[in-house]
Amino acid sequence: MSHEARIFIGEDQQIIRSDPLQRVVIFVSMAGNTLGSHLRLTTFGESHGNSIGGIIDGMPAGVEIDTEAVAFELSRRKPGQSKLTTARRESDQVEWLSGLWQGKTTGSPLAFRIANKDARPQDYDMMQDVYRPGHADRTYQEKYGIRDPRGGGRSSARETANWVVAGTIARHLLPSELKCIAYVDQVGTIHAPTLSTPDATEIEAHPVRCPHEATAQKMQDLIERTKKKGDSVGGAIRCVVTAAPAGLGEPVFGKLPARLGAALFSLNAVKGVEFGSGFQAASMFGSTHNDTYDAKGEPTSNHAGGSLGGLSTGTPIEFRVAFKPTSTIGKSQQTIDLSGQVVQLEAKGRHDPCVVPRAVPIVEALTLFTLADLYLISKTDRL
Ligand SMILES: Cc1cc2nc3c(=O)[nH]c(=O)nc-3n(C[C@H](O)[C@H](O)[C@H](O)COP(=O)(O)O)c2cc1C
């Protein structure tokens, strides 16, 4: 049964979608492009379209912006940075369109655009009529009745370049002593030792972005072996935020882990986010899980992961983010085409064999943006 209906809006005939029983006629738009409440990022763009970009609304006036820092963070995220990432090459030059005057924010919306320079939509011709298993092709097609097949359109992680811009801008609002450092903690079954104070220079020293050299090498070997087989592998990122002010977050629906979790679950391929002891808490006793206080009132452990009752405690905010293996792989897999016929797919094109090395700056950016939003809220509360 077709799920399409036709209506007239003014002079124009529009095709709109209805539910499977044709009872309710629904307009379907691709909404949900805004992150944040006081500080808001609204984005646009598709992977192989003309450009991507966004508007950051709510930036206070008079903040001196370090555009070099934005360029640096984008270079950490960009494709083609090592043989462990997709071979697509994007220069990721940010064009500032509004909201800046003589290097400072004016308080008006900060708008930016990043051109897609290395788009190769023809790579996706073979996948235009076929649903990639594990990707968003089928859900997009079924919800909207139309989709941009070039690189997955809006479902592509190309979008995350916008988030890195916004996260770096948001960082300007946070106290300078706050540090937000993420690193690759796991690739496949290879785990890094848990580090309480990860070092940014050591993380960046290896293309995998794991600061433990011997583990990083094993992770790299695994990613390279996997890529040669036309396959992909999952992984996890750990993030530690130090010197975050206490009291960020709201006690009921705007809890700090809920706000951070909502941002991090917006990131492509994320399958899990755990704070502090996370899922291990389920197998512990209260006597060992409680972070007891010493005579100076300092917690002796950090199972809480930096928040209690939804509010930041002032101890490090610590969490892990699990990523699934990249869905587009060169190995032959059974799937269906748009007409429902069973077909075999051996995907072509340029893909990340493991997304975690490139996702490190994106996790940091989403964290910084969310913390800056909560920080602005906490300051506004006190006015
Ligand atoms: C940094 C990064 C790079 C990615 N690169 C690819 C890629 O090259 N090919 C691919 O199929 N998926 C890639 N993904 C994952 C897809 O965008 C994602 O799996 C897809 O949109 C479906 O969404 P979901 O996995 O969140 O359900 C990447 C994700 C991240 C975070």
H-E order: EEEEEEHEEEEHHEEHHEHEHEEEEEH
Please report the first level of CATH classification, the CATH class of the largest domain: Alpha Beta
Structural class: alpha+beta
The helicity comes to 10-25%
Tally of helical segments: 8
Please provide the count of β strands: 19
Average pLDDT across residues? 92
> Any idea what the CATH architecture of the largest domain is?
4-Layer Sandwich
What is the CATH homologous superfamily assignment of the largest domain?
Answer: Chorismate synthase AroC
Distance between the termini: 57 Å
Number of domains: 2
Bound compounds: flavin mononucleotide
The parts where pLDDT drops under 50 for at least 5 residues are none
Structural Rg: 22 Å
Could you explain how this protein is built, in words?
This protein is α+β, with helices and mostly antiparallel strands and 383 residues long. It folds into two domains: 1-30, no CATH class; 34-381, Chorismate synthase AroC (Chorismate synthase, AroC fold, 4-Layer Sandwich), CATH 3.60.150. Helix content is 24%, strand content 23%. The longest helix is centred in the C-terminal third of the chain and has 26 residues, at 356-381. The protein is globular. It binds flavin mononucleotide.
